[in-house]
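User: My collaborator sent over this chain with a note saying "see what the structure looks like." That's all I know about it. Can you take a look?
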Amino acid sequence: MKQRLSSTHKKVVIRKLDKSLVRGYVDPRTYMNPNGVELLEYDGHLVSVPLDQIKAVFFVRDFEGNPQRSERKIFHSRPRQSGLWVRMIFKDNEVLEGLTPNNLLDLDPTGFSITPPDVYSNNLRIFVPRSSLTAMEVLGVIRDGRLRREQPRVAEGPGKAGELLGQIDLFSPPRPAQAKPATKD
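Assistant: Without extra context I'll predict from the sequence alone. Here is the result:
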């Protein structure tokens, strides 16, 4: 059986602060470098776009997308995936919400990688440089998609049936004070 290998280059559309677009392919593991974002343009030229000129890097399904479709930029209700629910305000006052991983090891000093609110849009992931934002706020911490209530843990064993673990006994009678041995002076 022949196994098909997936491509390491992903389709991206870079929206620059001057509203122009750059379409091309990037290696998602190495596209960031000290000079900015390096990509192979659609026509085959290798270019580097400086980070201070980038508004966002959109990892897309298709380069053209669907121009008739109106894309959601905010969540209408609580997100169903886990992560930090964030709201970002760009320098041009555009507002975008998304989910970013709730893991300090995934933080990038140059920007944020988010999952957009519209799962049916052309955008799969978005990288937003810190330099393109005026504000960012955390709206919530989403543990998982389901509402989960923790069940109280009950101790098992003789004499402990029905006792809740981790609970202190607030209403038991006080224990008698122990007598201290007398000391000689």
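A starting point for your reply to your collaborator: DSSP finds no helices and eleven strands in the chain.
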